[in-house]
Amino acid sequence: MDRDLESVQQMRDMVSKAKQAQSMYMEYSQEQVDQIVKYVAEKAHLASGSLAKLAVEETGMGVAEHKKMKNELSSMGVYESIKSEKTVGIIREDRNKKITEIAYPFGVIACIIPTTNPTATAFFKTLISLKTRNAIVVSPHPTAVKCTIEALKVCNQAAVEAGAPEGLIGWIRKPTMAATSELMKHKDVDLILATGGGGLVKAAYSSGKPAYGVGPGNVPVYIEKTANVKNAIKMIVDSKTFDNGTICATEQAIVVHKNIKEMAVRELKNNGSYFLNKAEKVKMEDVISPARNGLNPKIVGRPAEKIAAMAGLCVPPGTRLLIAEEDRIGKDIPFSIEKLAPIFPLYTANDEVEAKEFCINLLNIGGRGHSLSLHTTDEEVIRTYGLEMPVSRIMINTLASIGAAGATTGLMPSMTLGCGSYGGNITSDNITAHHLINIKRVAHGIKDVVVPQPSRHVQNEWHDNSNDNRVEEIVDKVLKEINIQSNTINSETVSDIVNSVIKNYQ
Fold first, then answer.
1. Residue limits of the Aldehyde dehydrogenase domain (predicted)?
2. pTM score, two decimals?
């Protein structure tokens, strides 16, 4: 069979099974749902290490130890954040307003999984879907099929063992673009949960279905002059090298105040950063974006030493980051775009105004609405950036990559981070369970109102055909108005016309 046809047929079969399973799952109680979600989370957590290794082996991206942490956050971390939520039946009652809120699911959810975080995203989307009595059909990324499906198998087996109906968790074994596209438009798919590139997200929003999609994250990190530079640099380097930069909330460009630049450069070098000279920078630009029309996918999630070798550069063993000083920003400036790899441009700001300009310009070329990282001890600076930056989350004095996902902050643990209207998304939230339920409301009347009666109008004279005198008055009036000169029109003719009109009108 043709590969596209086979893939599309697999998708249709999975959607059909998911729809049947979801109709059964609709009857489950909150207690039953919670037992299933807990058991699946526990089993996923146990498999975090082995699946992390499988993901690195298959995709060639990232660091197994770091992917294990992401898998753990996306399993038990997500579970802990949603375990107490009510998602079945009556979820809230307001006795004062006499409103009862009742949750009901979307139905079948189409889930698109990225190659950068395949197993963690599979865990995360499965758990929030199960918690809300939805079924899911997953389209894995073609370069991460094996590890994504293995993660889903772990979840599926656990769900069935805990009492969930068969078919509630489905996937396309041989994903193709044709099958993914048709999945998002399938008549029995009720919601799309898309995590991936800009083109994919646009396709999700254009499908005609309700959709949660997220935009890219070209995250600036500003080291303000009052920052604890040593701590800030350590966190930035650890964050940028976490899973080799594959998380969309990872810092993408350093902006440093001139007063502390020398100290920042020294600390960057102390933490394994290699600064490229002008000639090396040119070579690296050709590796980051060979045709200046986007990111070279071959560098995504690769370690710094391997990327340096791609550019023909020899860097010291143990190099963690590649950095070049930069003062330009644009989609055709390779160092300034989102890189998803351990590579940094370093911008020097002469004052606070220039620092903000650098940050906003970086966001404007591909990261609006996503995230910004700030290292400072000045509360006024924090307030100013919070008010003025066009982003949905600002991480203060922490690792942006995992902080935005809820690992080091109080933000909701999530692998799908909304960018709001700044980024053309429907929400600015960290997507979680409550985004996957609808709420119906039962509302009692609590206010008495007096409805005014319509004013009494004079009865329309066209309705009064009981009085011949009225007809005669109308005829006389018409004759005077038209100033009849013709002998062919007389009062009897007009009278006949008036009576006819009145009769038809009635």
1. 9-275
2. 0.86
One domain for residues 357 and 394: yes
Q: Are residues 180 and 40 in the same domain?
A: yes
User: Closest Cα partner for 132 from 89, 94, 184?
Assistant: 89
Reduce the DSSP state of residue 218 to 3 states and report it.
coil
* pLDDT, tens digit only, all 506 positions of the chain: 688 899 999 999 999 999 999 999 999 999 999 999 999 999 999 999 999 999 999 999 999 999 999 999 999 999 999 999 999 999 999 999 999 999 999 999 999 999 999 999 999 999 999 999 999 999 999 999 999 999 999 999 999 999 999 999 999 999 999 999 999 999 999 999 988 777 777 888 888 899 998 878 999 999 999 999 999 999 999 999 999 999 999 999 999 999 999 999 999 999 999 999 999 999 999 999 999 989 999 999 999 999 999 999 999 999 999 999 999 999 999 999 999 999 999 999 999 999 999 999 999 998 999 999 999 999 999 999 999 999 999 999 999 999 999 999 999 999 999 999 998 888 999 999 999 999 999 999 999 999 998 887 644 544 544 555 665 666 566 666 655 555 556 666 666 666 666 665 55
- At 488, phi and psi to the nearest 5? -80, -15
| CB contact at 8 A, 61 and 116 | yes
314 is catalytic: no
- Are the C-beta atoms of residues 341 and 310 closer than 8 Å to each other? no
**Residue 299 shares a structural domain with residue 403:** yes
Marked catalytic residue, from 147, 248, 359, 419: 248
Q: Is residue 1 part of a domain?
A: no
Let me know how many helices (H) and strands (E) the chain has, helices first: 18, 15
- Mark whether 238 and 368 lie in a shared domain: yes
Same domain (yes/no): 263, 407: yes
Q: Does a structural domain hold residue 269?
A: yes
Looking at the fold, whether 255 and 380 belong to one and the same domain comes out as yes
Integer angstrom CA distances of residue 249 from 235, 299, 484: 14, 17, 85
State the CATH number of the domain containing residue 257. Answer: 3.40.309.10
